[in-house]
Amino acid sequence: MRKKQFEPLLISEFVEDTFHLPMHEQNYYELVYIRSGRGKQVINKFELDYERGDIFLVSPADRHYFNIQEKTHFLFILFTDSYFLQNRRQQKLYAWIMELMNDRGLRENKLVLTEHHRLIFSHLMEAVRLYSLAGVSQTAQWLFDQLLAIFGLYKEISEIKRLPQTYSLRLDSSISAYIHQHIFTPEHLQVKTIAQKFNIAPTYFGIYFKKNFGNSLRDYINMYRIELIEHRLKSTAYTLKQIAQELGFVDESHLSHFYKRTKGYSPKAYRQQLQKK
Fold it and tell me: What is the DSSP string of 125-150?
Protein backbone atom coordinates (compact mmCIF):
# COMPACT_ATOMS: atom_id res chain seq x y z
CA MET A 1 0.00 0.00 0.00
CA ARG A 2 1.35 3.46 -0.94
CA LYS A 3 -0.34 6.61 0.31
CA LYS A 4 -0.28 9.75 -1.83
CA GLN A 5 -0.27 13.40 -0.92
CA PHE A 6 -0.56 16.27 -3.36
CA GLU A 7 -0.50 19.27 -0.99
CA PRO A 8 2.96 20.65 -0.11
CA LEU A 9 2.06 20.58 3.61
CA LEU A 10 -0.58 18.84 5.66
CA ILE A 11 -0.88 18.71 9.45
CA SER A 12 -3.16 16.12 10.98
CA GLU A 13 -3.68 14.24 14.24
CA PHE A 14 -5.25 10.99 15.39
CA VAL A 15 -6.12 9.45 18.74
CA GLU A 16 -6.27 5.69 18.26
CA ASP A 17 -6.23 2.33 20.03
CA THR A 18 -5.30 0.59 16.77
CA PHE A 19 -3.35 2.34 14.02
CA HIS A 20 -5.62 3.07 11.07
CA LEU A 21 -3.12 1.94 8.41
CA PRO A 22 -1.31 -1.35 7.72
CA MET A 23 2.39 -1.43 6.84
CA HIS A 24 2.61 1.15 4.07
CA GLU A 25 4.77 3.38 1.89
CA GLN A 26 4.04 6.95 0.86
CA ASN A 27 5.09 9.59 -1.65
CA TYR A 28 5.70 12.29 0.97
CA TYR A 29 7.89 12.98 4.01
CA GLU A 30 6.60 12.76 7.53
CA LEU A 31 7.54 13.96 10.99
CA VAL A 32 5.54 12.12 13.66
CA TYR A 33 5.15 13.52 17.18
CA ILE A 34 3.73 11.41 20.03
CA ARG A 35 1.51 13.65 22.19
CA SER A 36 0.58 10.72 24.47
CA GLY A 37 0.54 6.93 24.59
CA ARG A 38 3.11 4.22 24.03
CA GLY A 39 3.88 1.36 21.64
CA LYS A 40 6.28 0.61 18.82
CA GLN A 41 6.95 2.12 15.44
CA VAL A 42 7.87 -0.60 12.96
CA ILE A 43 9.97 0.97 10.22
CA ASN A 44 11.53 -1.20 7.56
CA LYS A 45 12.91 -4.07 9.66
CA PHE A 46 13.25 -2.25 12.97
CA GLU A 47 10.96 -1.90 15.98
CA LEU A 48 11.40 1.37 17.89
CA ASP A 49 9.66 1.88 21.22
CA TYR A 50 7.74 5.13 21.55
CA GLU A 51 6.26 7.14 24.41
CA ARG A 52 4.97 10.65 25.05
CA GLY A 53 7.22 13.29 23.53
CA ASP A 54 9.03 11.07 21.01
CA ILE A 55 9.64 12.18 17.42
CA PHE A 56 10.17 10.06 14.31
CA LEU A 57 11.13 10.84 10.72
CA VAL A 58 9.72 8.87 7.77
CA SER A 59 10.55 9.18 4.06
CA PRO A 60 9.10 7.74 0.82
CA ALA A 61 11.89 5.14 0.94
CA ASP A 62 10.42 3.60 4.11
CA ARG A 63 7.72 1.09 4.96
CA HIS A 64 6.25 1.63 8.40
CA TYR A 65 3.31 1.40 10.78
CA PHE A 66 2.60 1.79 14.49
CA ASN A 67 1.87 -1.07 16.86
CA ILE A 68 -0.15 0.72 19.57
CA GLN A 69 0.08 -0.67 23.10
CA GLU A 70 -1.63 2.23 24.88
CA LYS A 71 -4.09 4.64 23.25
CA THR A 72 -1.93 7.11 21.37
CA HIS A 73 -2.37 10.70 20.25
CA PHE A 74 -0.32 11.22 17.08
CA LEU A 75 0.52 14.56 15.48
CA PHE A 76 1.66 14.21 11.86
CA ILE A 77 3.48 16.87 9.85
CA LEU A 78 3.30 15.64 6.25
CA PHE A 79 5.11 17.47 3.48
CA THR A 80 6.60 17.11 0.01
CA ASP A 81 10.08 18.33 -0.88
CA SER A 82 8.54 21.33 -2.61
CA TYR A 83 7.41 22.86 0.71
CA PHE A 84 10.92 23.76 1.85
CA LEU A 85 12.42 24.11 -1.63
CA GLN A 86 9.97 26.51 -3.24
CA ASN A 87 12.50 28.74 -4.98
CA ARG A 88 16.22 29.02 -5.67
CA ARG A 89 16.92 31.05 -2.54
CA GLN A 90 15.13 28.56 -0.30
CA GLN A 91 16.82 25.61 -2.01
CA LYS A 92 20.18 26.86 -0.80
CA LEU A 93 18.95 27.84 2.65
CA TYR A 94 16.87 24.79 3.50
CA ALA A 95 18.42 21.91 1.56
CA TRP A 96 19.67 20.63 4.94
CA ILE A 97 16.10 19.67 5.88
CA MET A 98 15.85 17.27 2.95
CA GLU A 99 19.30 15.91 3.79
CA LEU A 100 17.99 15.28 7.30
CA MET A 101 14.85 13.54 6.01
CA ASN A 102 16.86 11.35 3.63
CA ASP A 103 19.30 10.27 6.33
CA ARG A 104 18.47 6.59 6.76
CA GLY A 105 20.56 6.21 9.89
CA LEU A 106 18.37 8.77 11.67
CA ARG A 107 15.05 7.38 10.45
CA GLU A 108 15.81 3.85 11.61
CA ASN A 109 16.75 4.96 15.14
CA LYS A 110 14.94 6.69 17.96
CA LEU A 111 16.21 10.15 18.84
CA VAL A 112 17.10 10.19 22.54
CA LEU A 113 15.73 13.36 24.13
CA THR A 114 16.35 14.95 27.50
CA GLU A 115 13.36 16.22 29.47
CA HIS A 116 14.49 19.74 28.60
CA HIS A 117 14.35 18.97 24.88
CA ARG A 118 10.99 17.20 25.28
CA LEU A 119 9.61 20.34 26.91
CA ILE A 120 10.84 22.57 24.07
CA PHE A 121 9.42 20.22 21.43
CA SER A 122 6.08 20.04 23.26
CA HIS A 123 5.69 23.83 23.06
CA LEU A 124 6.74 24.00 19.42
CA MET A 125 4.45 21.14 18.40
CA GLU A 126 1.50 22.49 20.34
CA ALA A 127 1.88 25.86 18.64
CA VAL A 128 1.87 24.18 15.21
CA ARG A 129 -1.13 22.05 16.20
CA LEU A 130 -3.21 24.99 17.45
CA TYR A 131 -2.27 27.08 14.44
CA SER A 132 -3.44 24.30 12.15
CA LEU A 133 -6.70 23.81 14.06
CA ALA A 134 -7.44 27.52 13.63
CA GLY A 135 -7.63 26.90 9.89
CA VAL A 136 -4.96 29.44 9.00
CA SER A 137 -3.22 29.01 5.63
CA GLN A 138 -0.54 26.33 5.54
CA THR A 139 1.59 28.74 3.50
CA ALA A 140 1.80 31.28 6.33
CA GLN A 141 5.32 32.52 7.10
CA TRP A 142 4.87 32.03 10.85
CA LEU A 143 4.10 28.35 10.36
CA PHE A 144 7.09 27.98 8.05
CA ASP A 145 9.36 29.55 10.67
CA GLN A 146 7.95 27.31 13.40
CA LEU A 147 8.65 24.19 11.36
CA LEU A 148 12.20 25.42 10.70
CA ALA A 149 12.67 25.68 14.47
CA ILE A 150 11.44 22.09 14.94
CA PHE A 151 13.73 20.65 12.30
CA GLY A 152 16.62 22.84 13.45
CA LEU A 153 16.36 21.50 17.00
CA TYR A 154 16.10 17.92 15.73
CA LYS A 155 19.24 18.43 13.62
CA GLU A 156 21.15 19.96 16.53
CA ILE A 157 20.30 17.08 18.88
CA SER A 158 20.94 14.35 16.31
CA GLU A 159 24.39 15.65 15.44
CA ILE A 160 25.44 15.13 19.06
CA LYS A 161 23.43 12.06 20.08
CA ARG A 162 24.08 9.88 17.06
CA LEU A 163 27.87 9.91 17.25
CA PRO A 164 29.74 6.98 18.88
CA GLN A 165 29.97 7.45 22.63
CA THR A 166 33.71 6.76 22.49
CA TYR A 167 34.23 10.12 20.80
CA SER A 168 34.37 12.68 23.61
CA LEU A 169 36.01 15.35 21.50
CA ARG A 170 35.21 18.48 19.57
CA LEU A 171 33.42 17.62 16.33
CA ASP A 172 32.84 19.39 13.08
CA SER A 173 29.11 18.68 12.88
CA SER A 174 28.80 19.40 9.16
CA ILE A 175 31.40 16.82 8.18
CA SER A 176 30.14 14.21 10.65
CA ALA A 177 26.57 14.71 9.44
CA TYR A 178 27.71 14.28 5.82
CA ILE A 179 29.44 10.99 6.68
CA HIS A 180 26.34 9.63 8.42
CA GLN A 181 24.08 10.70 5.57
CA HIS A 182 26.22 8.91 2.95
CA ILE A 183 27.32 5.82 4.86
CA PHE A 184 25.31 3.59 2.48
CA THR A 185 27.00 5.10 -0.59
CA PRO A 186 30.78 4.61 -0.12
CA GLU A 187 31.61 6.46 -3.34
CA HIS A 188 30.59 9.68 -1.56
CA LEU A 189 33.01 9.04 1.29
CA GLN A 190 36.27 9.24 -0.64
CA VAL A 191 38.74 11.79 0.75
CA LYS A 192 38.74 13.76 -2.50
CA THR A 193 34.93 13.97 -2.54
CA ILE A 194 34.55 15.09 1.08
CA ALA A 195 37.44 17.54 0.84
CA GLN A 196 35.88 19.16 -2.22
CA LYS A 197 32.48 19.29 -0.53
CA PHE A 198 33.91 21.26 2.41
CA ASN A 199 36.51 23.28 0.49
CA ILE A 200 39.52 21.64 2.17
CA ALA A 201 42.63 20.68 0.22
CA PRO A 202 42.64 16.89 -0.27
CA THR A 203 46.31 16.71 0.76
CA TYR A 204 45.48 18.45 4.05
CA PHE A 205 42.12 16.79 4.76
CA GLY A 206 43.55 13.77 6.60
CA ILE A 207 45.48 16.03 8.99
CA TYR A 208 42.44 18.29 9.46
CA PHE A 209 40.12 15.37 10.17
CA LYS A 210 42.40 13.68 12.71
CA LYS A 211 43.02 16.99 14.48
CA ASN A 212 39.29 17.61 14.91
CA PHE A 213 38.02 14.04 15.36
CA GLY A 214 40.93 12.30 17.06
CA ASN A 215 40.87 9.44 14.54
CA SER A 216 41.46 8.96 10.86
CA LEU A 217 38.57 9.20 8.41
CA ARG A 218 38.76 5.44 7.76
CA ASP A 219 38.61 4.60 11.49
CA TYR A 220 35.68 6.97 12.00
CA ILE A 221 33.72 5.47 9.10
CA ASN A 222 34.48 1.93 10.26
CA MET A 223 33.29 2.73 13.79
CA TYR A 224 29.96 3.95 12.44
CA ARG A 225 29.66 0.89 10.16
CA ILE A 226 30.10 -1.32 13.24
CA GLU A 227 27.26 0.55 14.95
CA LEU A 228 25.01 0.01 11.94
CA ILE A 229 25.91 -3.68 11.78
CA GLU A 230 25.10 -4.18 15.47
CA HIS A 231 21.86 -2.25 15.12
CA ARG A 232 20.82 -4.68 12.39
CA LEU A 233 22.01 -7.74 14.30
CA LYS A 234 19.56 -6.79 17.04
CA SER A 235 16.72 -7.27 14.55
CA THR A 236 15.95 -10.92 13.79
CA ALA A 237 14.50 -9.77 10.45
CA TYR A 238 18.01 -9.24 9.08
CA THR A 239 20.22 -12.08 7.85
CA LEU A 240 23.98 -11.61 7.70
CA LYS A 241 23.75 -11.78 3.92
CA GLN A 242 21.23 -8.91 3.87
CA ILE A 243 23.38 -6.80 6.20
CA ALA A 244 26.42 -7.41 4.00
CA GLN A 245 24.54 -6.37 0.85
CA GLU A 246 23.06 -3.26 2.46
CA LEU A 247 26.38 -1.97 3.81
CA GLY A 248 28.40 -2.65 0.68
CA PHE A 249 30.39 -5.74 1.70
CA VAL A 250 31.31 -8.25 -1.00
CA ASP A 251 29.57 -11.05 0.86
CA GLU A 252 28.76 -12.44 4.32
CA SER A 253 32.34 -13.65 4.80
CA HIS A 254 33.71 -10.17 4.09
CA LEU A 255 31.32 -8.69 6.66
CA SER A 256 32.26 -11.27 9.29
CA HIS A 257 35.98 -10.71 8.74
CA PHE A 258 35.58 -6.93 9.04
CA TYR A 259 33.48 -7.20 12.20
CA LYS A 260 35.71 -9.79 13.91
CA ARG A 261 38.88 -7.85 13.10
CA THR A 262 37.40 -4.83 14.87
CA LYS A 263 35.50 -6.43 17.78
CA GLY A 264 37.44 -9.65 18.37
CA TYR A 265 34.40 -11.90 17.90
CA SER A 266 32.06 -12.73 15.04
CA PRO A 267 28.70 -11.09 14.29
CA LYS A 268 27.06 -14.49 14.86
CA ALA A 269 28.57 -14.60 18.36
CA TYR A 270 27.25 -11.07 19.03
CA ARG A 271 23.74 -12.06 17.93
CA GLN A 272 23.83 -15.25 20.02
CA GLN A 273 24.87 -13.23 23.06
CA LEU A 274 21.92 -10.89 22.51
CA GLN A 275 19.52 -13.83 22.36
CA LYS A 276 20.69 -15.04 25.78
CA LYS A 277 19.72 -11.77 27.46
Answer: HHHHHHHHHTT--TT-HHHHHHHHHH
